[in-house]
């Protein structure tokens, strides 16, 4: 995991080729990974990453974007509603991530979608759109 974060850090610092428009997204992704504090839950005896999903919009009336995925740093578009999903990750992708409590979640196991309003209520605090960090 640390090797993957180091590679991501090199990309963010510009040591590897990367589009300038991607740097901010990569910086947020790196910072969120370093925190190691993300929501997960057990489903079929396996820990799964939990991603919040935002309400549908006019362009995608039956789908909603997720918060940025910790496996790839991108938002995904899924049919609206809670439940287990298969990741749509592309580009530089992590196969697993480790929570600061030592729990490992694997991309191959998919993730669980929670509607953003339910996610906020569960955590007892307002949900911050577009990731764990805002600056």
Structure, described:
The protein is α+β, with helices and mostly antiparallel strands and 135 residues long. It contains 3 helices and 8 strands. The two termini are 24 Å apart. The protein has helices spanning 2-12, 23-35, 116-123; strands at 40-43, 46-53, 63-65, 77-79, 83-85, 96-98, 104-106, 111-115. The model is unreliable at 120-135 (pLDDT under 50). The radius of gyration is 15 Å and the shape is globular. Helix 1 (2-12) runs antiparallel to helix 2 (23-35). It has a domain at 37-123. A 4-stranded mixed beta sheet has the order 1-2-8-5.
Q: What's the short version?
A:
With 135 residues, this protein is of the alpha+beta class.
List keywords for this structure.
135 residues, alpha+beta, four-stranded mixed β-sheet, two-stranded antiparallel sheet, disordered C terminus
